[in-house]
Design brief:
Helix content is 21%, strand content 35%. It has three helices and ten strands. The longest helix has 18 residues. Bound molecules: 1-O-pyrophosphono-5-O-phosphono-alpha-D-ribofuranose and hypoxanthine. Its cofactor is Mg(2+).
């Protein structure tokens, strides 16, 4: 991917950040580690829609152990910022008591979504809850969250692609792009 390439959405311009090949390598690494950690446990992977769909399914397909997957839908972002309120749009239908749970997120940013979800899941008495996130912004995170599986630790900049959106767009981009500060100094 040429460093000079740019894409634009909703008046913001984005520059290349993480190439699809580097993402694929990290997804492979995480799936291999997870397969070894959960061998024989038949974990339940919970994918947090919409953003995590691409990462969760890519990773799930690479697991070499028996595992199940299910989906819930949470929403807290509008445009490029968190509303601070996590809305549950679609809930969990499975009984997770006694199960080993792996929550899969595309990104932990302020940490509000994952921290609320972990609390809700723990109240349902699972055997264990761990978190896998493709992207983690420690500088932005306002909660005490220590994800067990992290694809990339990144600075506090708004990004899109590989499942991450700006107002519903750009999720289908194979690479990850970061907002170009020249187009939006605050993002
Ligand atoms: O750490 P936080 O600040 O809570 O941000 C992370 C959350 O934000 C995004 O979801 P969003 O609410 O944008 O919904 P989406 O997954 O449908 O894009 C992302 O998929 C995470 O769930
Ligand atoms: O940087 C981001 N990009 C897209 N969606 C997000 N949701 C939280 N942080 C982000």
């Amino acid at each position: 991917m040429s460093e000079n390439k740019r894409v634009s959405y909703n008046g913001l311009t984005f520059k290349p950040f993480i190439e699809a090949s580097a993402i694929a390598q990290r997804v492979d690494d995480i799936a291999a580690t997870m397969s070894s950690d959960y061998n024989g446990l038949r974990p339940l992977v919970i994918c947090v829609l919409n953003g995590a769909a691409v990462f969760a399914v890519d990773m799930f397909r690479r697991l070499s152990i028996d595992a199940e997957i299910t989906f819930i839908r949470l929403k807290s972002y509008e445009g490029t910022s968190s509303t601070g309120v996590v809305k549950q749009v679609v809930g969990l239908s499975e009984d997770i008591a006694g199960r080993d749970i792996i929550v899969v997120e595309d990104i932990i940013d302020t940490g509000t979504t994952i921290s609320r979800l972990i609390d809700d899941l723990k109240a349902m008495n699972p055997a264990s809850v761990k978190v896998a996130t493709l992207l983690y912004k420690p500088e932005a995170c306002r909660h005490d969250i220590n994800p067990e599986y992290v694809g990339f630790t990144i600075p506090n900049k708004f990004i899109i692609g590989y499942g991450l959106d700006i107002d519903g767009l750009a999720r289908n981009l194979p690479d990850i792009w970061v907002v170009d500060p020249q187009s939006c100094p605050d993002a």
